[in-house]
Amino acid sequence: MDITFPTTAEEYRTHVRSLLAQELPPDWKGVGALDPAERESFNATWRAFLVENALIAPGWPSEYGGGGLDLTSQSIVAEEFVRAGVPQYALPTDPVGMTLLGPTLMHWGTESQKEYFVPRTISADIRWAQGYSEPEAGSDLFGLRTRAVLDGDEWIINGSKIWQTAGTHANWIFALVRTEPELPKGKGLSFLLIPYDQPGVEVRGIKTMDGGFELAEVFFTDARTAAENIVGKPGDGAKVALTLLGFERGSGGIAAALAAKLELLRLRDAMREFGIVDVELRRRLAECWTSVHAMHCLALRNLTVTASGRPPGPESSISKLMMSEYRKRVTELAVEVLGPKALTPSGMESKINLGPQPLGVNSTSSTAWIADYLHARPGTVYGGSSEIQRNTIGEQVLGLPREPRPVPPTKAG
Ligand SMILES: Cc1cc2nc3c(=O)[nH]c(=O)nc-3n(C[C@H](O)[C@H](O)[C@H](O)COP(=O)(O)OP(=O)(O)OC[C@H]3O[C@@H](n4cnc5c(N)ncnc54)[C@H](O)[C@@H]3O)c2cc1C
User: How many domains does the chain have?
Assistant: First the structure.
């Protein structure tokens, strides 16, 4: 199946390709081929190029520094970046700002919030962390306990958040907090924007199983933010949070399907290189190939639906579930292809944490495959676990009866 976009869209693709050809060196093999120091310097230059050409947030309105592109053109930009092996997001906090907070502010933010926060997010003067989860409120997000009280023209915040992706690189956090504790748990929540740079905010890195510190926890002790740094009205927090989760779960798209396809071709190359003849491993490779095609078709369907202008709804759980479960399968297959080599990782290091490696990473690098294997594990947890996605699909997309909720304990016990 070879699906092409309308002629005008394909003309835009030609434009993006020529822009990339002008910008990238002639011997360019993909950011994956660069060593860490080269990559850092490339990423800084590349980010400046993206900002200058309004490609860092291609879908946002141009008055806020975005590219003002329609969905098809945005998709083409993302796809061509994957194909060229260059990052759409050059800083660790960029995905949080560009794919989560930015689109949510466009939907819910006041004019002055958009004017203040959006250009600063683009310039990276403001770098965001996502403050949803708490130690006892992950899947049960609306059970969160962090409180905020309005005191004159400021909110005072107390409590803590955990598992903030790129949290140690951020300097602001958007947090879901409880502002009306007397109301049932899904009500009385508000969505606040809080600066790190104050005595009441403490950020601690969390060491993960790969030895890195890509996650953090954030503690608020009488932390403050201006009264106007609330997105939506007090009590709108759950609705704002769900809009953002829709963007998070549906953010995969066509480029993600292409990245998955290129990763699978890298695995095929490794199998060729290692001379794998095992029928079962070949069968599993073919099964992965059909999954990649299914994800591509789903992404095209989602593109058509979201082109109608409505924010992603519960259907975004289908893409999230498919992609995260697929990544576990394909990286498990990679480990079996490596066989004993998986026990003594060697070769080129991985270049990105969450998601397939960019072009340029060697197919036979066991170090990179093992990192991918480890990083695919949390994919079925963050953004809502697979069980939660299945519940959402069952109840909200298919209209099945709600699963029984636990009965709250009575006062008598
Ligand atoms: C790599 C990574 C990055 C993350 N980044 C962020 C971030 O930037 N910001 C942020 O706020 N959070 C982040 N998170 C947190 C993430 O959103 C939560 O881990 C997730 O929502 C699950 O919550 P939990 O860890 O508390 O597990 P729990 O909710 O305690 O779940 C434990 C297990 O019980 C299952 N379960 C729970 N409820 C049900 C149910 N009703 N039906 C069936 N099964 C159920 C779950 O599926 C899971 O298997 C991140 C997590 C990871 C791993």
Answer: 3
Read off the pTM.
0.91
| Ligand 1 centroid from CA 131, angstroms | 13
Residues 372 and 270 in one domain: yes
Query: How confident is the model over 346-386, as pLDDT tens digits?
Result: 888 888 877 899 999 999 999 999 999 999 999 999 888 99
CA nearest ligand 1 atom 43, residue: 387
Q: What are phi and psi of 218, to 5 degrees?
A: -130, 125
Q: Same domain, yes or no, for 210 and 264?
A: no
Q: For ligand 1, what atom is nearest to the CA of residue 385? A: 47
Please indicate whether residue 171, judged by its CB atom, sits closer than 6 Å to ligand 1. no
Q: Ligand 1 centroid to 380 CA: how many Å? A: 9
Q: How confident is the model at residue 410 (pLDDT cuts 50, 70, 90)?
A: low
Q: 12 CA distance to ligand 1 centroid (A)?
A: 39
CATH value at residue 139: 2.40.110.10
Helix (H) or strand (E) holding 189: strand 189-195
Tens digits of residue pLDDT in 258-296: 999 999 999 999 999 999 999 999 999 999 999 999 999
**Ligand 1 atom closest to residue 141's alpha carbon, by position in its atom list:** 21
Q: Which range marks the domain in which residue 88 is found?
A: 7-108
Q: Any catalytic annotation for residue 52? A: no
Same domain, 286 and 354: yes
Nearest alpha carbon, ligand 1 atom 13: 163
Judged against a pLDDT cut of 70, whether residue 31 lies above it is answered with yes
In this predicted structure, the answer to whether residue 61 has a pLDDT above a threshold of 70 is yes
* Sequence-ordered alpha helix ranges (H) in 207-315: 237-249, 253-273, 279-306
Residue 225 sits in the same domain as residue 267: no
Give the CATH number of the domain where residue 94 resides: 1.10.540
Residue nearest to atom 25 of ligand 1 (CA): 138
Catalytic residue among 80, 214, 248, 315: 248
Q: In 10 A of CB 158, how many CB atoms?
A: 16
Q: Residues 6 or more apart from 152 whose CB is under 8 A from it?
A: 227
**Are 258 and 358 in a shared domain?**
yes
- H helices within 60-152, ranges in order? 71-84, 94-95, 102-108, 111-123
Q: How far is the CA of 220 from the centre of ligand 1 (A)?
A: 21
Q: What is the pLDDT of residue 303?
A: 81
Within this chain, do residues 224 and 261 fall inside the same structural domain, yes or no?
no
Give residue 245 CA to ligand 1 midpoint distance, Å.
Answer: 13
**Ligand 1 lined by 392 (C-beta under 6 Å):** no
Secondary structure tally for the chain: helices H, strands E:
12, 8
What's the pLDDT score for residue 159?
Answer: 98
